Structure formats: structure tokens, C-alpha cells
Amino acid sequence: MTAGLAPDGASPSPPILEIVRDRATLRLNRPDHRNRIERADVDVLSKHLTSVDGNPDLRVLVLTGTGSTFCSGYDLGALKTEAAEASVTEPAPDLFERMVDQLEDLRIPTICALNGSVYGGATDMALACDFRIGVEGMELGMPASRLGVHYYLSGMRRYVTRLGLAAAKRLFLTGVPMASDRLLKVGYLDEIVTAAELPGRVDALATLLASRAPLAVRGMKRALNAIARGNPSAAEVDAEVLRCMRSEDLLEGLAAWKEKRAPVFRGR
Fold first, then answer.
1. Which of 85, 174, 186, 251 is the most buried (most CB within 10 A)?
2. How far is CA 166 from CA 160, 163, 169, 174, 191, in A?
3. Which structural domain, as residue segments, surrounds residue 194?
4. Comparing C-alpha atoms, which of 177, 171, 201 is closest to residue 192?
5. What are phi and psi of 198, to 5 degrees?
6. What is the DSSP string of 92-103?
7. Do 42 and 79 meet the contact criterion of CB atoms below 8 Å apart?
């Protein structure tokens, strides 16, 4: 089995975190319900992300699902309960939004292995990842306007900054699903592969990302996200540039380039 993608047939459960050497895999695991995200799963996902962020040995995270659908989105039963609660009291902070923002801000590169179609809030989870590889025949469905849901700000910002305003409006305002070929054209998908090819392609990309200098990767990822949000800090970027200039990783990278060998970066 390729590290990062679990076989089908596992018992349904909350999201599972698996760690193999320098790679973490976060797997949605309710295939009987198309990997829907239940209310309690949001806290589980957040705790898993905190664990990953605090593990200095990890270099890359893969987000995927069990079965033939990546995720059907947030549980509509839970959404109905939250709507009822909001009608009688001041709503609490959107924990799902916070969790997805946490995924976007993860210090290591992230890959979403879209093993099937993706809907609702899960479309934003995938968009919060740095790379998305999808399978042929998958689709994206954003039913917010069909349900009467007003999407949260950071999710709409991700759609607009990554896909453009026209694509974001089409998906949010019409609620009409978008097929994989169109998702590739608008930039939601980086690649489309067959289901059989997905594990190997994800493994290859994860291995490549894990081989890069972690200090430089972390700093540039943070800066690029800040640029997309419109709030980059020149002082913070300059500090990361200086940190990398003074790092052992830079010396190793230059030596490996000169010696025509693969570098061995240690993140210091």
C-alpha cells in the first residue's frame, strides 16, 4: 500500500491521523455516509492538525477520504441544530471556519488527495490545502444558495483569491456542480488522474515536497498565504529571509548543488 492512502473497508470512525516517517495522513472515514463531517468531527480534525503542527519530524500532510467520495460536506442535521440554536441565542464562533483556517496555516505543505467528489464545506477544506489532485469523473458541488446558507468570509476569500471572482460566483450563486475538467481549468485541481494512479501520484508529490528545505518552505508558504490575503508583513518576510541565509540548510543546499547530489535538509 502506498503511504498516505488507506484501503477501503476500514470501520467507520471520526477522522483518522496516520503518521509514517515524515508524512502525516488525515483521512475522513465515514464511507457509508460519503465521509460527511459530523459536528464532533470538527474538534477531532482541529486536534489532529494541532498535533501535526507540533511535530517537528513531519514534512508533509496528505488529506484524503475512504471510499469513492472524498466528502459530502458538513452534516445537514448538525447544521439544522445550529440554525435553531442561532435563532434563540448569539451564535458561537464558527468552529468549522476556524478549523479550515488552521489547515490553511499549517506550517508544512499539504496535499488534498480527492479520491472522489467533494461538496459543501469540504470544498473549502480541499481549497485550504496547498495542492489538490483529483480523480477522473469527480465533481464539486457548492449547495449554499440552494440551502439558504451564507458562507463564511475566509472560505469565500479562498475561492476568490484561488479561483477568481467569476468562478467563485458561479459556484456559490448558482449551486450548479462543476465537473473535473472545468475544475482543472479554473485552478481548483492541479491534476486529474485515474483512481488507480492517485496513490502513486500523491506519493510522488509528497516525497518531493518532503525533500525540500523545511525552513524555506515554511517561510515562503506563510508569506504566499499572507500575500493572497492582502496582509503581508515585510518585516516578517525579511526575518525569514535572514533566518534562511544563516541556516545550515542553505549551506547544505549549496554544497549538494555543487556536488550534484540530493541535499539532506535538517530544518536548521
1. 186
2. 8, 8, 5, 12, 21
3. 16-210
4. 201
5. -55, -50
6. PP-HHHHHHHHH
7. no
6 lies in some domain: no
The number of folded domains in the chain is: 2
Q: Which residues lie closer than 8 Å to 249 by C-beta, 6 or more apart? A: 213, 214, 215, 216, 263, 265, 266, 267, 268
Helix axes 234-245, 214-229, angle to 10 degrees: 170
* Same structural domain, 71 and 161: yes
Tell me if 236 is assigned to some domain.
yes
Cα–Cα distance, 174 to 171 (Å, whole number): 6
Cβ atoms within 10 A of the Cβ of 268, count?
10
d(C-alpha 122, C-alpha 158), whole Å: 13
Asked if the structure places residue 264 within a domain, the reply is no
CB-based contacts of 264: which residues, under 8 Å, 6+ apart?
A: 252, 256
Do 158 and 132 have their domain in common?
yes
| 3-state DSSP assignment of residue 137 | coil
Q: If DSSP codes are grouped into helix, strand and coil, which group holds residue 196?
A: coil
**Tens digits of residue pLDDT in 224-267:** 999 999 999 999 999 999 999 999 999 999 999 999 999 999 98
Q: Is the pLDDT of residue 153 over 70?
A: yes
Contact at 8 Å (CB) between 77 and 27? no
Alpha-carbon distances, residue 218 vs 53, 162, 189, 197, 237 (angstroms):
11, 19, 22, 28, 11
Domain boundary among 186, 210, 234: 210
Q: What's the pTM? A: 0.90
Bridge partners of 69? 117
Q: What share of the chain is helix, strand, coil (3-state, %, to 5)?
A: 50, 15, 35
